Amino acid sequence: MKKIQVGFLVSYDYKLIKFALPPIYSESDTIFLAIDKNKKTWNGESFDIDPSFFEWIKAVDTDNKIVIYEDEFYVPELSTMACEVRERKMLAEKMGVGNWLVQLDSDEYFYDFKSFTDFLRSKNHFLKEGAEKIQICAFKVNLYKYVDEGVLYVDKLDKFMVASNHPGYKVGRHCKCRSVYTNSIALHDCLSRERGELVQKLENWGHNTDIDKEAFMKKWDMVNKSNYKQIEGFFYLNPMHWKTLEFMPGKTIQELLENFKRSGKLNVPSFFLLKKNFGQWFKFLFKK
């Protein structure tokens, strides 16, 4: 017990695991890859995984810590979000309650996972029986669209729930409990896909019924390196949550990451963290 257990939900964008898995490999105790045994998305669409992917897994798993977890995660009677929550709970149970349950998506790339796991280990008292239920949040830079010589990205850091001491997911990874914030940051290859792959994601992820796909894709198609400064409102739910974009040069994920590091964009102000954590502590002080 008290291990760092990491789980990925593997589906149509499985190829992105090749960017997401290596940075977290050495600091994880076990890594679970959850794959629908019938190769169905949460919306019931079929997908394939090239056999070479599993050969790659074998090659990188030098410490034999990767577990392929197959089950039936698609239930026709459930919404896509309900299927997502169900799969996350099933995966968490497989990972082992009593450990840190870290759930990542294939398109989330940590650049300093060690600092995040060091933080988790410093909070191991939350893994004791009867401890307060919490979720550990990091921040991410959302990549919006690849353009010539680089990427357009959202000009703000977004929080995201990464780890928890219990599998009480309500919406996605959100457990609706006290959040504890860290200064860890990941690149989120969120909407920066080939057009067909992006449409596939919008039709099959947990938010598929929450967005106006036609309006969203119209703006996504239109924005480019020349006009992004003249356009506002890019979020797929409430557009102004992502008000503006910026440009970062780089032709590969590694090059982009290095440029982000040099830019200073991967910093979370200490006072901001202090305020967030105090606010969460106070909010749940009388809810225990």
Overview of the molecule:
- The protein has 288 residues and is an alpha/beta fold.
- It has a single domain, classed as Alpha-Beta Complex (Spore Coat Polysaccharide Biosynthesis Protein SpsA, Chain A).
- It contains 9 helices and 9 strands.
- The chain has helices at residues 17-20, 22-25, 51-60, 80-95, 113-122, 195-204, 213-222, 253-263, 270-283; strands at residues 4-10, 30-36, 66-71, 100-105, 108-110, 134-147, 150-164, 178-188, 245-249.
- Strands 1, 2, 3, 4, 5, 6, 7, 8 and 9 form a 9-stranded mixed β-sheet that branches.
- Helix 3 links the parallel strand 2 and strand 3 (66-71).
- The longest helix has 16 residues, at 80-95.
- The radius of gyration is 19 Å and the shape is globular.
- The model has no long low-confidence stretch (mean pLDDT 93).
Task: Compute the separation of the termini in Å.
Answer: 24 Å
Chain-averaged pLDDT: 93
What is the CA-atom radius of gyration, in angstroms?
19 Å
| Share of residues in strands | 25-35%
Number of strands: 9
Helical residue percent?
25-40%
The CATH architecture designation is Alpha-Beta Complex
CATH class: Alpha Beta
Largest sheet: 9 strands, mixed
